[in-house]
Specification:
- This protein has two domains: 134 residues, 2-Layer Sandwich (Heat Shock Protein 90), CATH 3.30.565.40; 88 residues, Heat-shock cognate protein, ATPase (Actin, Chain A, domain 4).
- The chain starts with a helix and ends in a 12-residue tail after the last strand.
- It is α+β, with helices and mostly antiparallel strands and 294 residues long.
- The protein is built from six helices and eight strands, in the order αββααβββαααβββ.
Amino acid sequence: MKRRILSLAAGLLLVLSACAPAGPQSSEGLIYPTSHPSSTPSPTETQPVETQPPVSATPAPTETQPVETPQAAAPVWGVQESECSQNDDEDKDVMLVQGKFSLPLIENAEGVAAYEAINQWYLNLSAGLRSDTLANAGQADADYALSKSMGYAFTYYTDEESYEITHETDRMVSILRTHYGHTGGTYPTLLYMADHFDLTTGEVLTFDDLFTDPDAAASIALQEVLRQAAQGDANGTTYDTALAESLFNRENFYLTADAVVFFYQPQDLAPNAAGAPTFPVDRSLFGDLLADWA
């Protein structure tokens, strides 16, 4: 009887041992409830899962590396040539007007928006010059008819234009154009025009774009022009300062490495044969008013 009681006690101990909770486990592979827990929940064994980062209401922007835009190669300058002419309707071998124009062309402009814009600007200018030349054909025809009736030699009307790059930096270029026109008079007509372009945008630049205080810069320029006009230019020629002041135009300038050169048209200050008076104003006179990229 005593042996039977011991056997029953041993069996009872085995049953109680099987029902007891297991010992401590690692937190790996366990998912705990995110809702309010019950009194004492028993951990549930599951398959391991990857922990996901918390999702915020506004995701943080993804940081990217800045993309550098490759700088365009320096412009390679060439010439765009264009011509036009018109002959008399009756005397087919008699030329009435002729135009020949040599204007700037950036040869490596393809794919560079700024360069293409500059080329287009001069293409439009060339078309306008040809149109102006041909528009004079009627007047030239009338002069030819009069010359033929009077027994005089007739000289056809001529328009020509050429250019020179006077200054160039990584950011801008300054170009001086010379227009020659002859309509049979004693002297041909000479006109000087300057163009300035931003090589990064293709936009036309004016005097105001190149100076931090354009009015102060124009005042400095005018005073120096008047000083040179009174004292004489490189050839010793003096000019009427009152006339020089009244005809001064801040946009009539071109840049060189050393100076901002202001010019007048022939016959403005002196006879046509004297050419175009020019007055170089040293860059140092402008101090920090002149843009450092010009």
